[in-house]
Design a protein that fits this description.
mainly alpha, two-stranded antiparallel ribbon, 8 helices, disordered N terminus
Length: 237
């Protein structure tokens, strides 16, 4: 039985598995923690993440955080106030989604000993680029090369819509301004922009549910990539 040891200054989590209910929109952290530790953390305002059993999914953390922020904005009539950070959470979640799918394909290629596809430019882009459309194109190219089905069209549609609001810079939602290739200052919000963050959140959650492996027994696009990688590495799990 997992338990919590109490010291003078803090609770120490004994890292055994605590089962918690599955969140209907997907789990950020799969396993829970001891009930008395959970109560203490709420009382003390502590977020406890990481370790062997409670490493969070960054993708699902950003999806859930965007949902919380958008829901709060709707409930309190503050959508204008939270619009930019909510959009940033949504676009970063989308970037993480595309990169997660790419990673499966690249790991499959590595397991098969393919040293040319992806090429160095594509590998560098996975690590360093924030241009979602370029990353998505890399995903399509390598899926075709390795014989995988390409991702559902809803992913491209969402990427195009998100990037349509940040045509000046991939940092549009992070900073007030950026520099062009000619080193000219671009002010991102000189003109009013109407961002449909409520609809974007709905589309984001629908796309993630369709693409990412869940716990409801429903096949997702990621299943194909994962099982191919598992077979290639003889894991078969």
């Amino acid at each position: 039985m997992a338990h919590v040891k109490c010291t003078q200054d803090s609770f120490v989590f004994d890292p055994h598995i605590y089962i918690k209910p599955v969140h209907p929109k997907g789990d950020v952290i799969v396993f829970g923690k001891a009930p008395n530790l959970e109560l203490a953390d709420v009382e003390n305002g502590v977020a406890r993440v990481g370790g062997q059993w409670r490493t969070p999914s960054y993708l699902m953390a950003y999806v859930r955080s965007a949902d919380v922020l958008v829901s709060h904005g709707k409930a309190t009539n503050t959508l204008d106030d939270i619009g930019i950070p909510a959009f940033y959470l949504q676009r970063h979640a989308l970037e993480l989604l595309v990169k997660r799918l790419i990673s499966w394909v690249y790991q499959y290629a590595d397991a098969k000993g393919n040293t040319t596809n992806p090429d160095k430019t594509q590998r560098d882009r996975l690590k360093n680029s924030h241009r979602i459309s370029l990353l998505l194109e890399d995903l399509h190219i390598n899926c075709r090369h390795h014989g995988f089905n390409e991702p559902p069209e809803c992913l491209r549609v969402l990427v195009d819509e998100v990037e349509s609001y940040e045509s000046s810079s991939a940092t549009w939602a992070r900073y007030e301004s950026s520099k062009s290739k000619k080193q000219e200052i671009i002010h991102h919000l000189d003109n009013e922009v109407a961002i449909p963050i409520v609809v974007l959140q709905e589309k984001l959650e629908m796309t993630v549910a369709k693409l990412i492996i869940g716990f409801d027994g429903v096949d997702a696009y990621e299943d194909e990539l994962y099982h191919a990688w598992a077979d290639a590495t003889e894991m078969n799990v």
